[in-house]
Amino acid sequence: MPLSYRTAGESHGPALIALVEGLPAGVELDVEFIDGELRRRQGGYGRGGRQRIESDRATFLSGVRRGKTIGSPIAIEIKNADSRIDDLERTPPVHRPRPGHADLAGSLKWLTTDCRETLERASARETAARVAAGAVARVFLRALGIEVFGFVRSTLDVRTEVAPAAATWKALREARDASEVYCPDAAASAAMVDRIHRTKAEKDTAGGLVEAHVFGCPPGLGSCMRWEDRLDARLAGAVMGVQAFKSVEIGLGRECAARPGSQVHDPIAFDPAARQERHLGFARTSNNAGGLEGGMTNGMPVVVVAAMKPIATLGKGMPSVDLVTKADVGSQYERSDVSAIAAASVVVENVVGFEIARAALDKFAGDTMLETTAALERYLDMARRLPLAERGQ
Ligand code: EPS
Fold it and tell me: For the chain, which terminal residue's Cβ has fewer other Cβ atoms within 10 angstroms, N or C?
């Protein structure tokens, strides 16, 4: 069974649910790590009042026995402290759609003038469930030696030029975790905080760029045989499926359109001393491909860059109309974030992790972790022994 997950839950309903299916038995769940990711998603400079109410934690309702997966569906619950969806006084109808939110499109789709019916599910609160599912998948990935590192690259006009690599990313993770905006460059981090602070004073909002770098991927995850199995397509779909994301790039991304081939493609060389690396010695002197060629991993780090639009709920409002009266009015303002870019970097890190785990299980399928890790080792051994007599070569 392919690895998959679904989520359920509204922003102000009783709880969020993630249902993860297809993980092998024997994955030791690191609950501290999973709850730590949920906590990180709640943080970041620019968050609004809601995060002072919530303290997200994953409760495992099924699929786990004595701290280990047993191969059955894993249901995870994250309770909402601010649960009031049925309370008419505290969640009255919203008639003034916010440009940039799902309010208008959803109201037209579901034939209602109450935007709340759409916004409760469209809300980025749901990303807590995705982070829980992704963090579970990343615990599995870590047992295969695969790690994901996410951070904030830019917000508005403030940008860092850090370049994470296999040798440096752990130190960068420490720097990121010390940053209020999850940016591993102290100077850029301080400038981002200042920029978000000024944006708040202007009653405006900010988005930004986030990146996820995956270290330790063996070659051959994903496939060029069917378009839907190309890993870059899956990654793009997963990240674009995150609330507020408007673009996804792999490696050099759209910049590759402005350069000739000789300045885009990553030269291939062979280093016999590096056979134990995940690139098996076929190290590349650059990684513009972002670790993916033909929709498959090539052994280099997978690099995903994604743009989040600014939060749609602006303190100063935006031009809008009342859906009942059709009169020109300002858009609805309720308590909101000024920036959730730091949180978004955690979400992208975890949804990317989930897709990598899915592709890893497609190639190294096993009912148990024991079989999956053995399949990975056997594959790496065969790939190192190329040309293979077993292949008639
Ligand atoms: C959101 C609106 C805000 C955000 C929310 C996303 O919620 P509320 O209306 O309760 O203040 O805080 O994000 C979260 C709750 C979260 O946990 O990320 C929206 O409309 O999308």
Answer: C
Q: Count Cβ atoms within 10 A of the Cβ of residue 1 and give its class: 0-12 exposed, 13-18 middle, 19 or more buried.
A: exposed
Structural domain containing residue 77: 4-391
- Given ligand 1 and candidates 125, 131, 242, 309, which is best to mutate, with the most ligand atoms within 8 Å of its CB? 125
Count other C-beta atoms under 10 Å from residue 163's C-beta.
Answer: 10
Instruction: Give residue-wise pLDDT tens across range 292-319.
Output: 999 999 999 999 999 999 999 999 999 9
Q: What is the pLDDT of residues 239-296, one digit of tens each?
A: 999 999 999 999 999 999 999 999 999 999 999 999 999 999 999 999 999 999 999 9
Nearest-CA residue for atom 19 of ligand 1: 123
Q: Output the domain CATH number for residue 273.
A: 3.60.150.10
- Indicate whether residue 198 lines ligand 1 (CB < 6 A): no
Does the CB atom of residue 298 touch ligand 1 within 6 A?
no
- To the nearest whole number, what is the mean pLDDT of the chain? 97
**Which one-letter DSSP state was computed for residue 188?**
H
User: Which secondary-structure segment (H or E) carries 15?
Assistant: strand 15-21
Collect all residues with Cβ–Cβ distance below 8 Å to 23 and sequence separation of at least 6.
3, 63, 69, 71, 74, 136, 137, 140, 361
Instruction: Answer whether 372's CB lies under 8 Å from 358's CB.
Output: no
Determine whether the shortest distance from the Cβ of 334 to ligand 1 is under 6 A: yes
Quick count: other Cβ atoms within 10 Å of Cβ 152?
32
- Return the structure tokens found at 18: 């993630």
Q: What is the domain count for the chain?
A: 1
Query: Greatest CA span in the chain, whole angstroms?
Result: 76
Smallest CA separation from ligand 1 atom 15, residue: 125
Q: Cβ(153) to ligand 1 under 6 A?
A: no
Tens of pLDDT, residues 175-205 = 999 999 999 999 999 999 999 999 999 999 9
Q: Are 303 and 291 in contact (CB under 8 A)?
A: yes
Alpha carbon nearest to ligand 1 atom 1, residue: 123
